[in-house]
Amino acid sequence: MATSLNTHVLSVLVQNKPGVLARIAGLISRRGYNIESLAVGPTESPEMSRITLQVNVEDVVLEQIIKQLKIVELEDSAIRRELVLVKVKATAETRGQLIEIIGLFGAKAVDLTSEVITVEATGSPAKLAALLELFEPYGIRELVQSGLVALGRGNRSLTDRNQRTERLKAVRTG
Amino acid sequence: MSDNDTADELTGAQSLVRSLERVGAEVVFGIPGGAILPAYDPLFDSEKVRHILVRHEQGAGHAAEGYAMVTGKVGVCMATSGPGATNLVTPIADAHMDSVPIVAITGQVASAAIGTDAFQEADIRGITMPITKHSYLITKPADIAPAIASAFHIAGTGRPGPVLVDIAKDALQAKTRFEWPRQLDLPGYRPVTRPHAKQMREAGRLIAESRRPVLYVGGGVVKARAWSELKELAELTGIPVITTLMARGVFPDSHPQNMGMPGMHGTVAAVGALQRSDLLIALGTRFDDRVTGQLSTFAPLAKVIHADIDPAEISKNRVADVPIVGDCKEVISELISLLRPTERRPKIDDWSRYLQDLKRRYPTGYDEPEDGSLSPQHVIKRIGEITGPDAYYAAGVGQHQMWAAHYLPWELPGRWLNSGGLGTMGYCVPAAMGAKVGQPDKIVWGIDGDGCFQMTNQELVTCALEGIPIKIAVINNQSLGMVRQWQTLFYQGRYSNTDLKTNRIPDFGKLAEAMGCVGLRAEEPADVDAVIEKANSINDVPVVVEFVVHKDAMVWPMVAAGTSNDDIKVARDMAPAWDEDL
Lengths: 174, 582
Prior knowledge:
The complex is a heterodimer of chains A (about 170) and B (about 575). Chain A folds into two domains: about 5-75, Alpha-Beta Plaits (2-Layer Sandwich), CATH 3.30.70; about 80-150, 2-Layer Sandwich (Alpha-Beta Plaits). In chain A, about 30% of the residues lie in helices and about 40% in strands. Chain A contains five helices and ten strands. In chain A, strands 5, 6, 7, 8 and 9 form a five-stranded antiparallel β-sheet that branches. In chain A, strands 2-3-1-4 form a four-stranded antiparallel β-sheet. Chain B is an alpha/beta fold and about 575 residues long. Chain B contains 23 helices and 20 strands. In chain B, helix 9 (about 195-210) packs across helix 14 (about 330-340), helix 16 packs across helix 17 and helix 16 packs across helix 23 (about 530-535). Chain B is globular, with a radius of gyration of 25 Å. The interface of A and B includes residues 169 and 172 of A.
């Protein structure tokens, strides 16, 4: 049996109701795995939420989780984005260099004091990692990252597809 | 129901009781308390729903399970918030492991008090989340009817399981309009029952080509009520059958093709069949570790066809070569039509002969104790022989459970109730109670241990007062027998805390009488038949029969935990002689 640990990005459409997130998280945690990143928010239809999970699990375990949920694992080609807000130490001498880096990465300075510059940046996880590596020598005071959000490429929409079939699936009570 | 039950103004509690009537719930096992109190008022008046007042909520839960097992309907238990609800945790977990359809209704503190550590508050929905198929927390009275309708549907369809409906007290008290939902709003829930045609054809091809196939049959076949289809398939093809602990009786033990139960305490023929098979046809079974032993050496030569209604079970423990998601009744019917042409039937004469020989050489048996004391196996065997296969039998957990699985007359389906997955000591008495409520005209025997019995015997009070005349055999070996057996085998006979001293206390006869039951006792082989017949002749009150048995009796065969099925022992340090000329 394959036991390789791999990072997977999963998208789950769920009802926007209390306890749903806990149930989804439980499916991962009860098997002893950690959720590396998590993002939840409403979708284009208000009764549904979309959960994006990044997990590091064995392929076989992932298959079980996918079967228990109406989950879609996104392809490697999917568009993946994170948001980072970071306070970087900035003196009068270094401020110019930092602003240059910020510009090159398409990021934004959103707050400035005599000691720090607060930067907002979005992008792929790789791009943000590169940006943070450049900030590192200046000193990072504080950092917050959103969970990863991701969408598959192309015309298809997860919500559209699910909702249409779900309506057909409504159970008649007779 | 009449049509005027839409748009009536009533309380949430009335709506709950009307919903229970509407789904056809005939019996509720429960105990009232503060938060659920409003529900008990209209329940008092219901002519359709009988409430059975138990003595402990755990008893309510197991009774709901017992009722569900013998009726095929959804069992219902009810409890108040906090401790009432947490006492239901064990039976809910039990129902989850053994796929028993129950709905647990709990009162919750008023919605404004939720999350404030209010008196008798427990987040029972959070507590039971990993052990329920689904759960609801209801804070609005209008949501009660749809939640009950959905809960019963979810509990009883697909892979059955427990559903919790937690209702805030103010939702029970507030006024609402009763509206029975025309449709259930369950996005994402649609169990697949019809197997995929392509996979079925592949399964048919593998079976036709196999030379050493085995029908590895689990509790899912009982749940699907597919015993007649199973018999037809087995007799059409001649393929040997093994029935797991949860499936005892789904295929008659007297049938020559039945090789018995597999697993840690399985028969040599069943374990040998799995280990030497070239094709496992796994139906409604989940390759439990107690069946497979060490997974890497389980059925090493076999391809696997795995049919289950729950897609998450397939390839969970053993990778399936042919995965089939579907209801076992439909899967087996499909297999029958695929294998009907003569040329599609596998050629298995050598294989059948080999297994018949194993079965003949290694029947499950036991030695009578040399000191003239009672052998527990003999007692259990006699209960079955005297009472017959049409009775219902419940068991606790431990040695007596394994002996019951081997020595009772498993000829009819759905007669066997036990806690297979969770292994809940204390399951027997309340499950037998629920079974008797569901099948009032049949004899219900509980085969219990002296350890198990002391966990939940208080439900005999319920049985005595409510007119539920079950019969409980307490197989008293004065110890926690299965644990003691492991201490004998793996802990050099150091009997740490397994001596229950039940030879001194309690006096089971007096205890039985104190609870309004008849208490009987047998100590010698000569007494056994007489007390069983006496117990069977009493049909107005519950009976407790204490059988004082030898405490060193052990369950054989045995595959030690974590070892390979190939290392099965038929007695201490005695391995079967496999005839390898196959």
